[in-house]
Design brief:
Blueprint: H1 18-45, E1 63-64, H2 66-78, H3 82-92, E2 101-103, E3 111-113, H4 121-125, E4 129-132, E5 138-141, H5 144-149, H6 151-162, H7 170-180, H8 182-185, E6 189-190, H9 191-222
Antiparallel strand pairs: 1-6, 2-3, 4-5
Helix pairs in contact: 1-7, 2-9, 3-9
The chain binds iron/sulfur cluster (SF4).
Length: about 240
């Protein structure tokens, strides 16, 4: 799995349109900012995940958006494994825990994320971020394991937040993601459904890109424009994208 930060991960994007590229760059900008703020909060509070713990992934209710599943969908298309993953998520019909969670074969509650660098926003936020109370105050959202294992640090963190310590605030980050693409970034879906839709969308875009490139080549050979010029000011020699 290549780094989520490296834009080279999106080689397939050369076949996608400029709007997609803009959205995905924006998404990784949000992730970079969040990861930096989360690391600062963890350092200041002393809170951290129990080694090897996978309990928050072992949950059938994780939701995310199609946009946030696009990076992993692109990665899977690049590796030519998208078809197998599509079969898998289609057979689940959107149900069950995230398909990318790999439970430890012998230790209950232990496991790992197999797409960690490309994981969506909720997986980056959960455990070390805050929701906003009715009065607009940040309230730490973390898991039972952290509360039990690190009860002292947890209590201190609550006091620090009460006193104004900085913590990533969930709605700030989710609204940034939604703002990148209202259709694909705002709607929350079960994670496996969001993955299926992202895989289908990327596959369709790749196919359309390839078809357009082919028709352009054929038209050039015949000495004709790929798309006939329309009359009036709305006409263009070629489509803007693909
Ligand atoms: S994407 Fe990774 S971190 Fe998120 S639920 Fe799936 S396995 Fe867990």
């Amino acid at each position: 799995m290549r780094s989520s930060i490296d834009p080279a991960v999106f080689g397939v994007l050369n076949r996608l349109n400029s709007q997609d590229k803009k959205c995905l760059s924006g998404l990784f900008r949000v992730y970079r900012d969040l990861d930096k703020k989360t690391a600062a909060f963890q350092k200041a509070s002393g809170l951290g995940c129990r080694k090897g713990c996978g309990q928050c992934c072992d949950n059938p209710d994780v939701e995310t958006s199609i946009l946030e599943m696009m990076p992993v969908a692109i990665d899977l298309w690049q590796k030519n494994t998208a078809g197998a993953w599509l079969d898998k998520v289609e057979s689940l019909n959107g149900r069950g825990r995230c398909v990318f969670y790999e439970p430890h074969p012998f230790s209950a509650g232990q496991g790992r994320c197999t797409i960690y660098p490309l994981r969506p926003l909720i997986c980056r936020l959960f455990g070390f971020s805050a929701r906003l109370s009715k009065t607009g105050k940040p309230v730490l959202v973390t898991c039972r394991v952290i509360k039990t294992d690190q009860s002292g640090q947890y209590t201190d963190a609550l006091k620090q937040i009460e006193g104004g310590a900085k913590i990533p605030v969930m709605p700030h980050f989710s609204s940034q993601v939604a703002g990148l693409n209202l259709m694909d970034g705002a709607r929350q879906l079960p994670i496996n459904t969001a993955l299926r839709l992202a895989l289908e969308r990327v596959g369709l875009k790749i196919r359309l890109g390839a078809l357009y490139a082919k028709s352009k080549l054929q038209s050039r050979r015949r000495g004709r424009p790929a798309v006939p010029k329309l009359s009036g000011s709305a006409g263009r020699d070629t489509p803007e994208e693909f």
